[in-house]
Amino acid sequence: MAESLSKAAFIRANTRVTDVPLVPELKLYLADETTAIWQATEDQLEHIGVPAPFWSFAWVGGQALARHLLDHPELVRGRRVLDVASGSGLVAFAAVWAGAAVVQANEIDPFACAAIAMNEQLNRLGKHIDILSTDLLDQGREAIAPVDVITAGDVCYEAPMAARMIPWLRMHAAAGVTVLLADPGRAYLPKQGLTALAKMNVPTVADVEDDKIRSTTVWQVLPPS
Ligand SMILES: C[S@@+](CC[C@H](N)C(=O)[O-])C[C@H]1O[C@@H](n2cnc3c(N)ncnc32)[C@H](O)[C@@H]1O
């Protein structure tokens, strides 16, 4: 596949517009299975070992968090929201639907940034989402504009990511930001410093999980003790 193929064309060619199982309010450009799109991503970038195209799946954590925001719009209504590790952007879109005043989506994968922009158009949100493509996780609070709520869907799937993400989330929680994280019990979810807000059974998509349904918890992340 030619390097010149635009990210938007690549996304259209390797996904289809799909309803999000737990969040029927939203549609996303999603892949049907992992192997083909991962191979296509490597072909597109002309080298192997590229990051998995996580933006092309609606992860159970993201679905649960999006559902929770839509069912509890008071959490974000009129507030400034930053969705970190946004993937497809589904949690950011739910924040817009729920009435957030300002919504930012942060992603380090350039394909994810392109997918977020396309998914935003697909859902005709009527509000612009700012897409931040810098890696915020080693940076202090001043690296982001003031926010009231930070959301993080399914970010505890690998040790290096969780080791950077959790202290960063706690730092913002210590500054008074409401920090929400949703997770199906992945290996690197902290055992302490979280308060459960909701638990739900989330249908999985494609072949990214072993089970068809994953019990997933929406947590509030507490400041460092
Ligand atoms: C499992 S996906 C979850 C996506 C989305 N939140 C959801 O629940 O569907 C994790 C995402 O984290 C992104 N990511 C990894 N490291 C990151 C970092 N340092 N900053 C921002 N995003 C990051 C990946 O590109 C990937 O899209």
Protein architecture, described:
- The chain has 225 residues and is α/β, with parallel strands linked by helices.
- The chain has one domain: Vaccinia Virus protein VP39 (Rossmann fold, 3-Layer(aba) Sandwich), CATH 3.40.50.150.
- It is built from six helices and nine strands, in the order αββααβαβαββαβββ.
- A seven-stranded mixed sheet has the order 5-4-3-6-7-9-8.
- Strand 4, helix 5 and strand 5 form a beta-alpha-beta unit.
- The chain is globular.
- S-adenosylmethionine binds next to helix 3 and helix 4.
What are the defining features of this structure?
225 residues, alpha/beta, Rossmann fold, seven-stranded mixed sheet, two-stranded antiparallel sheet, 31% helix, 25% strand, globular, binds S-adenosylmethionine
Briefly say what this structure is.
This protein is an alpha/beta fold and about 220 residues long. It is built from six helices and nine strands; from the N terminus they run αββααβαβαββαβββ. The strands form two sheets. The protein has a seven-stranded mixed beta sheet.
